[in-house]
Amino acid sequence: MTSRDVVKKTIHFEKPERLPYSVWVDIPRFEEERGREEVDIINNLMLDASTDFIILDINADSNWKPNKGRAPVLNSLVDYFHDEREDEWQVIWKEARVIEHPLEEDWSLAANYRIPDPYGPGRFSLAKDLMEKNKNLYHLGVVWFTLFERLWMLRGFNNLLIDPFTNINEFSRLRDNIVDFNLGLIKQWLKLGADGIFISDDWGGQQKLLVNPDYWRKFYKPSYKEMFDLIHAGGADVWMHSCGNVTELIPDLIELKLDVLNPVQPQSMNIDYIGKEYRGKLCFFGGVDVQETLPHGTPDDARREVKHLIQTLGGKNGGYIGGTSHTILPDTPLENIKALFQAFYDYCSHTDFK
After folding, report:
1. What gap in Å lies between CA 141 and CA 128, rounded to an integer?
2. CA-closest candidate to residue 123, choices 96, 107, 102, 144
3. Residue 144 falls in which region: left (phi positive, over 0), alpha (psi -120 to 50) or beta
4. Model confidence over 52-86: pLDDT tens digits?
5. Tens digit of each residue's pLDDT (9 = 90 or more) over 39-53
6. Which residues contact 125 (CB under 8 A, 6 or more apart)?
7. Which of 3.20.20.370, 3.30.230.80, 3.20.20.210, 3.30.300.30 is the CATH number of 3-347?
8. Which residues are bridge partners to 263 per DSSP?
9. pTM value?
């Protein structure tokens, strides 16, 4: 059974021979705060870990140049830079945060604003190379900052929340233009043969949704349906990253036929409830707590949590991909990181959990 088979069978509850897992560590910040020696140890743990899928990013249009002489953001997964960087949407970043929104001041700015070209040259050059070098892995293409996040990055968060009520025509036009950009990327990923497509929009806060679910259903759900339907029509799986407590949206996401939900944060969501209500209806990816268990717990706590997640969200039929509730940060003791990798190796290597 190839790695691609393992991931496919896990997602579709077809009794994989083992469960896949992937651990995300903020290596640049670890190196800055903890030093090269620990980073080398973590890198070796990652190299030794089972790798069944590869996350493939897009590049910026090779013809694009940033304004004001700023350094460019060259792909969609923004790194932690201390200096200001501009992406091809004219959004300004610093230390993985948006600090300038190009359409924030007034909707009149949208008249001369141009959405990037999804078919721009060089978009998939790195992805193609990685796909060729990792033929046996499950290929997961990224359409990151998909819709809600892209909109608030352009308009500013507070503006965006009220735009559907105060500027519905402008809001709808910009939203639909962003969806068209995404559809262009999706079509190209499908043509390249991607097995899955990973979208991202953080809809949850620490305790509840950032918006009323009816607001989400009215202004955003039809757009997700259009994208999900295209992905499924091309034979690929839909993965979605959404931080915070998104429990209220899970029934809607299942209705839209979402395949994989990430990251499942136990400090925001009730893991036992999620497992009771939705185990077997949706594949979950992530869950090991980076807010409490990993930074403040013990190695035994990390091991217990991995086992509990597998038993609660997945099992012998699949339905669970090992991972953390977000990226591991430098406040996490090295011994806990070692224990986490060992636990995933031990517990994901068999599927006899009930």
Report:
1. 11
2. 144
3. beta
4. 999 999 999 999 999 877 899 999 888 888 899 99
5. 999 999 999 998 899
6. 59
7. 3.20.20.210
8. none
9. 0.96
